[in-house]
Design a protein that fits this description.
Length: 954
């Protein structure tokens, strides 16, 4: 007979010995060793009984070796299944065989779900993999099961949009110990973890999630060699994370790296003779992004080619089929938009690409489940394609209703914006597309509805669980929304609605802080239970707001960014929103912790008109709130006009440039003259009847609420150098970031209580900053006028000392350097003696609740200034001190000379001291106005010296 029985026995013996030495690195299921040993044992028995006969004499070692094999196999299985590590012994559910069975069921359920879209099956898959993870804790198979659980949870998030699934996936992935896992398993775990982190970033916006996603992706790629079958998957997942990073940073190098990674995955598959549809679909999308960014038509041609290949590699019913349809449609639509004739300067482009894009996007919508989050993405692509195709429609194409493809585009964008399972960024993008399509077609009522939907999403875009820097970044990407919304409302003839949209769509973080400080006396009288919950919840939200520790507390520990803390703050924020709705449903409390009604706005204008300066791509207007109602005045300003003047002013005043003072003055004069012609003169013309009826002493008051780039310009100093046309000679100007913050300041007015005791914080010498000779002079001046002034000078002026003293003083004077952070404005602040290790930031000050102090004078640089992309949020020191409780703040738009600052401060304080001693109300706005006139008289041809100072508040 053949000698193959001997070979089987020998192979069984060697295999068992190998498995026994190698352990679970090669076989995940411990019980898999036993069949090999038993097979050798059975063969040996058959040989011994003569059923199989060897050609020669049976080797003497054969029988004993098979007994050994069987014994080793059983012993190895028992040893592997027995709890051997402390972690295993501590796990009462330890059951590797049971874990293996549950994992196998989970995998089978995932395959079944992929074919059926049965959510119950998906839930069973997740439950089975959870059990496998629990039963394998401490076992070598554990990291592999965790990887599969993370993947299953990620799949369920992609289907249902539940952020809790991503929280669990990240927690499971980060809690796994991959030390015992082989490199390929570690790579798969890190790759799946990175994908979950990236999706959570896309949903919520926490930058540290994205950083960890990219880091995990890079480590995963580094763990697998290019020959590994896991290599293309790890490259593809890293490419997706890098794409999200590009969208955050707009760094083209990051996009290039993403393209490189996914291209490597595509090349790997091509080299082995097959196509990975997922990689081709991803690369198609990345090339569309790069083509849009660089204008490269070649990228778009390649994107279309890859999109077609991805679609050819998938079948209807497969998970990637709808995505492949939509991605190809997007590539075709983008190629048409950037092709010859798209700009209107060349020959008319063919509509073939658009026709195909419309067809593909429609098929994607019909293929994907209607309630799946990705449906909103497909609807956006469909809306883009339909809108572009509608531009070529004839009257016949539009049909009897005149809608045609344009109406279908509106329907698709509207449906995406209202899709409850889609993430907020996708819904917001869809809402902006909806509003743009409607406004461009002159359907302003529909556009306003779209903008209302978008503005309602802005607080959720900057969720309470995010760090403050992430909140500011998310909102900064969408500046100008409120201005466009108001413009459409004005086009619809609804100025009251325009004001409401401006109030709700600007100062989102400011409003959130004001909500926390609402007066609850009336609420307590109506419903003590709700009042108690309100106080408890606002105290919880105030602690560590947006990742910020309470003022004066040490820096947050790493645990402050944990998933548990995020989940808790998310739940608190959701309950807060529900609580406000309950409170506002009570009789008489409809405006609780919210913007004032139009009636209250008009009543508040008795002290002076409030003028919103609204600049939009659709139209620009001054929206005037006056005692006789709310009305608008057209302005001949565009966003480009305002942006050009803002950049010119910044360049002229940049102290890093060696620009002569005369040249600076000429640039400032040009801007001030333009502000008069384009803004101030039309507004004053509309207010002339009101001002003619002004019967009080002095000039009438106006509160300016500029939007966009106008918020960075000295509107209060608008005028021509000839002196006959100047806003300074017509009104006393103040600023307010929102009308609600002005109403809050007015409500905090208190009767004078005698001579104030100011706190004077002065820094003549500041570490790593230039000396300020005028700071000491300002301190002496304040002390001379108010002898009881408390001084903190140089080494005594630390963050801790200042925060300890502020609650005891109704007036505060700061003569020191200040810095503005253009990327994260809340990190700007005042430079005190210990600023290098413990800065006093905008975030610190805005977190204070000092009651109702009167005046903060900020004799520092750029204390009323923020970056253009954060203009709508007005995040700077002036508003921070207002939030802290100060009714009036004196601040600057740009740096001024030290000696000019001393002269200006003396003029202001001399006026204020006279008012205090006479018992008159403290009117810092009038004092700043007269000081500005005085310095202008001293140096009329140097507006950079006197146009920087402004007054915020009432």
């Amino acid at each position: 007979m053949s000698d193959w029985p001997l070979a089987i026995g020998v192979l069984s013996t060697l295999t068992m010995l190998f498995y026994f030495c190698a352990g679970d690195r090669f076989v995940a299921v411990a019980g898999g060793r036993m069949p090999w040993g038993m097979l050798g044992f059975v063969v040996s028995q058959l040989v011994e009984q003569g059923v199989w006969v060897f050609p020669g004499a049976t080797p003497s070692w054969y029988g004993p070796s098979t007994y050994v094999a069987a014994t080793v196999s059983g012993a190895a299985s028992l040893l592997r299944m027995a709890p051997s590590s402390p972690q295993q012994r501590a796990n009462p559910d330890h059951d590797p065989l049971g874990a293996s069975e549950q994992a196998a069921r989970g995998r089978e359920r995932l395959r079944e779900y992929a074919a059926s879209d049965d959510l119950t099956v998906l839930d069973h898959a997740v439950d089975g993999l959870r059990t496998a993870v629990r039963k394998s804790l401490g076992h070598g198979s554990h990291p592999g099961y965790v990887t599969e659980l993370v993947k299953a949870l990620r799949m369920r998030y992609e289907r249902l949009g539940r952020i809790q699934d991503l929280d669990e996936a990240v927690g499971a992935g980060e809690g796994a110990d991959p030390a015992r896992a082989r490199r390929a398993v570690r790579a798969r775990l890190l790759s799946q973890l990175g994908t979950a982190l990236r999706l959570r970033y896309d949903h919520l916006g926490a930058a540290d999630d994205l950083a960890r996603a990219v880091a995990a992706g890079r480590e995963a790629v580094g763990l697998v060699p290019p020959r590994s079958p896991y290599y293309p998957g790890t490259c593809g997942h890293l490419g997706a994370s890098l794409h999200s990073d590009f969208l955050r940073t707009d760094d083209l190098d990051v996009l290039e790296e993403a393209v490189t990674q996914v291209s490597a995955a595509v090349k790997w598959a091509d080299g082995r003779g097959y196509r990975r549809a997922a990689d081709r679909a991803t690369l198609c999308h990345l090339l569309v992004q790069r083509g849009q960014r660089t204008g490269g038509i070649g990228d778009l041609d390649r994107a279309v080619k890859l999109g077609r290949e991805a679609l050819e590699s998938t079948e209807p019913g497969e998970a990637l089929y709808a995505t492949s349809l939509s991605n190809l449609g997007l590539a075709l639509r983008t190629r048409n938009a950037m092709g010859p004739g798209a700009s209107g300067t060349g020959p008319s482009p063919s509509t073939a690409d658009l026709d195909e894009a419309v067809d593909l996007s429609g098929r994607a919508l019909r293929t994907a489940p209607a309630d799946a989050p990705e449906q909103a993405v497909f609807q956006v692509v469909a809306a883009l394609a339909l809108r572009d195709r509608a531009r070529y429609d004839t009257d016949r194409d539009r049909g009897p209703a005149g809608d045609g493809r344009l109406g279908a585009a509106l329907d698709a964008a509207r449906a995406a914006a209202l899709h409850t399972r889609a993430d907020v960024p996708t819904r917001l993008r869809a809402g902006l597309l909806w509003s743009d399509i409607a406004a461009s077609a002159g359907r302003y009522r529909d556009a306003v509805t779209a903008f209302e939907t978008v503005i309602a999403l802005l607080p959720r875009l900057a969720g309470r669980e995010l760090r403050r820097a992430d909140q500011e970044d998310r909102l900064g990407r969408h500046t100008g929304i409120a201005a466009d919304a108001a413009a459409c409302a004005l086009a619809e003839g609804a100025p009251e609605r325009a004001v409401a949209l401006l109030e709700q769509g600007r100062g989102v973080l400011l409003s959130r802080e004001l909500d926390l400080r609402a007066d609850i006396r009336e609420l307590r009288a109506r419903d003590p239970r709700l009042a108690d919950e309100f106080e408890e919840l606002r105290a919880a939200l105030a602690e560590g707001h947006g990742g910020r520790p309470p003022a004066g507390a040490p820096a947050a520990s790493p645990a402050a960014s944990s998933a548990g803390l995020r989940s808790r703050r998310r739940a608190q924020g959701e309950r807060w929103d529900e609580l406000l709705r309950e409170i506002r449903a009570l009789d008489g409390l409809a405006e609780f912790a919210g913007p004032p009604s139009p009636q209250r706005l008009v009543a508040g204008a008795a002290e002076g008109a409030v003028v919103y300066l609204n600049v939009s791509r659709y139209r620009s207007d001054a929206v005037i709130i006056a005692p006789d109602g709310i009305r608008s005045v057209p302005l001949r300003v565009t966003p480009d006009d305002a942006g050009h003047r803002q950049r010119a002013l910044d360049a002229a005043l940049d102290r890093r440039r060696s620009t002569a003072e005369g040249e600076r003055a000429a640039a400032v004069h040009e801007v001030l003259g333009w502000l008069w012609d384009a803004v101030a003169e039309p507004v004053l013309g509309a207010l002339k009847d009101l001002h003619a009826a002004h019967g009080g002493p002095g000039l009438p008051r106006v509160w300016w609420v500029p939007t966009g780039a106008l918020a960075l310009l000295p509107v209060h100093a608008a005028g021509h150098r000839d002196g006959s046309r100047s806003l300074l000679d017509r009104v006393i100007s103040s600023y307010t970031p929102t009308v609600r913050s002005l109403a809050t300041a007015r409500a905090a007015r208190a009767a004078p209580v005698g001579l104030p005791v100011p706190l004077a914080v002065t820094m003549s010498r500041t570490p790593d900053a230039a000396p300020l000779a005028g700071a000491e002079a300002e301190a002496r001046m304040v002390c001379g006028l108010f002898p009881d002034t408390v001084r903190l000078t140089d080494e005594d002026a630390t963050r801790e000392r200042v925060l300890r003293e502020l609650p005891h003083h109704a007036w505060a004077h700061f003569a020191c350097h200040a810095v503005a952070d253009r990327d994260v404005p809340s990190r700007g602040g005042l430079l005190l003696h210990d600023h290098l290790r413990s800065p006093l930031t905008v975030e610190d000050v805005s977190g204070l609740d000092l009651g109702h102090p009167e005046l903060a004078y900020l004799s520092s640089c750029e204390t009323a200034r923020t970056a253009p992309r954060h203009a709508d949020e007005a995040i700077h020191l002036a508003t921070a001190f207002q939030l802290a409780g100060y009714r009036q703040v004196v601040a600057t738009l740009w740096p001024v000379r030290d000696e000019v600052g001393s002269v200006f401060a003396e003029r202001v304080y001399t006026e204020l001291a006279g008012s205090v001693r006479s018992g008159a109300p403290v009117d810092a706005a009038a004092a700043v106005h007269r000081a500005t006139l005085a310095v202008r008289e001293l140096c009329p041809n140097r507006p950079q010296f006197w146009a920087s100072y402004l007054h915020v508040g009432c």
